[in-house]
């Protein structure tokens, strides 16, 4: 069900402040469910190729370890080698979930590419540009935001690359 924008999460606040058109889609998250993307797709009846998950990986850039964000379709996985190449690193490894939560201000399963506590280098899988709108977390489990992929890329200052497989 679509809802009107409200103050809500940091992601919703960031989108509202940027005057981006978006639609919220909310569903009842099942406590204990850990397959967040599959739950989103099933509950909202969406095409998994249009629902994107926000994942954090650790890379070494300029001799310094840092987190980077990969935004990839639910229908696949993030290709860590491709992500590393996209940001100019030799390799990437999935970030520790607790580190991802601290760095973004969101809980796993509700990490949004918008309104993160710390801004990170972000790469969006190039498949996003093939849709009029895509769905990403709005900052909590059970809440998705539907946006134009151009707005997703612009607001996160993301590069696009084939990082999904």
What does this structure look like?
The longest helix is centred in the N-terminal third of the chain and has 9 residues, at 36-44. The radius of gyration is 15 Å and the shape is globular. It has one domain (2-161): YbaK/aminoacyl-tRNA synthetase-associated domain (YbaK protein, Alpha-Beta Complex), CATH 3.90.960. It has helices spanning 10-17, 36-44, 80-87, 97-104, 149-155, and strands at 2-3, 23-26, 52-61, 64-73, 92-94, 121-125, 134-140, 143-147, 159-161. The strands form 2 sheets. The protein has a 5-stranded mixed sheet. It is an alpha+beta fold.
Descriptive keywords:
165 residues; single chain; 5 helices; four-stranded antiparallel β-sheet; five-stranded mixed β-sheet; 30% strand; disordered N terminus; YbaK protein; alpha+beta
